[in-house]
């Protein structure tokens, strides 16, 4: 299985490199090499930034979950299964958390890199405008804002919202697996620390959603 995975990874890498080289040759032939490299480095920058942000969010959340793991948990059949999981996974958590976060962040970064066009429009929008005579009478925005800046800002807002939702779901699942959430235990189902943690994440989601309403 490992050999098959390695061969598949090499095949994907070679395919990507061949496509990269063909595109580079084409842009060179039509004398637009600068455009090629600008798009290329924009994709790299976007992928790195969004991947890094998601990595920090997810890794910090999982480390917080680990720190909030309750030391004493009432016995129950549900807790017995969770305890087996903890005994098997906990010794490797310090390595598993960053590796897991990095793998997910890699896919997130690759997906975000596809937004290079809206990113370049946003980045190049400084100084572009239609003048005071064309300002939006309701929101007092220049039409250039809606054409060059808003698409990327909306993407960032939507991305942050989705990222926080997924991180919150993963956090809730991790809290359940570490005993912070006990669905079948009599008495308190969620520890106070877990309530605070999840409330902070939900609060961030609401703030990002409010930003989306502000953008329109």
Report on this model:
The chain is mostly helical and 216 residues long. It folds into two domains: 1-31; 37-215, no CATH class. Helix content is 75%, strand content 0%. It has seven helices and no strands. The chain has helices spanning 2-29, 33-67, 77-89, 93-112, 116-123, 143-177, 192-215. Helix 2 runs parallel beside helix 6 (143-177). The longest helix is centred in the N-terminal third of the chain and has 35 residues, at 33-67. It is flat and about 65 Å long.
Secondary structure layout:
Elements: H1 2-29, H2 33-67, H3 77-89, H4 93-112, H5 116-123, H6 143-177, H7 192-215
Helix pairs in contact: 1-2, 2-4, 2-5, 2-6, 5-6, 6-7
Low-confidence stretches: none
Q: How many domains, as an integer?
A: 2
**Which value, in Å, is the CA radius of gyration?**
23 Å
Structural class: mainly alpha
- Tell me what portion of residues adopts beta-strand conformation: under 5%
What is the mean predicted local confidence, pLDDT? 82
Number of helices: 7
Q: What is the end-to-end distance?
A: 49 Å
Helix content: over 70%
Largest β sheet strand count, sense and barrel closure: none
Extended strand count = 0
Shape field: flat
Order of helices and strands: HHHHHHH
């Amino acid at each position: 299985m490992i050999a098959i995975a390695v061969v598949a990874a090499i095949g994907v890498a070679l395919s990507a490199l061949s496509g990269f080289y063909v595109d580079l040759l084409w842009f060179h032939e039509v004398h637009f090499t600068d455009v090629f490299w600008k798009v290329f480095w924009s994709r790299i920058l976007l992928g790195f930034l969004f991947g890094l942000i998601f990595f920090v969010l997810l890794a910090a959340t999982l480390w917080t979950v680990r720190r909030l793991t309750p030391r004493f948990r009432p016995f129950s059949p549900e807790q017995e299964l969770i305890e087996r999981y903890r005994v098997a996974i906990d010794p490797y958590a310090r390595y598993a958390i960053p590796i897991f976060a990095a793998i997910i962040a890699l896919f997130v970064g690759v997906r975000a890199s596809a937004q290079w066009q809206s990113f370049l429009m946003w980045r190049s929008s400084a100084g572009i405008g239609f003048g005071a005579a064309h300002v939006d009478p309701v929101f007092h925005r220049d039409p250039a804002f809606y054409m060059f800046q808003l698409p990327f800002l909306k993407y960032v807002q939507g991305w942050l919202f989705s990222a926080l939702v997924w991180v919150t779901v993963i956090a809730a699942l991790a809290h359940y697996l570490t005993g912070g959430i006990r669905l079948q235990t009599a008495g308190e189902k969620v520890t106070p620390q877990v309530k605070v943690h999840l409330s902070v994440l939900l609060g961030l989601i609401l703030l990002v959603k409010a930003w989306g309403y502000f953008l329109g």
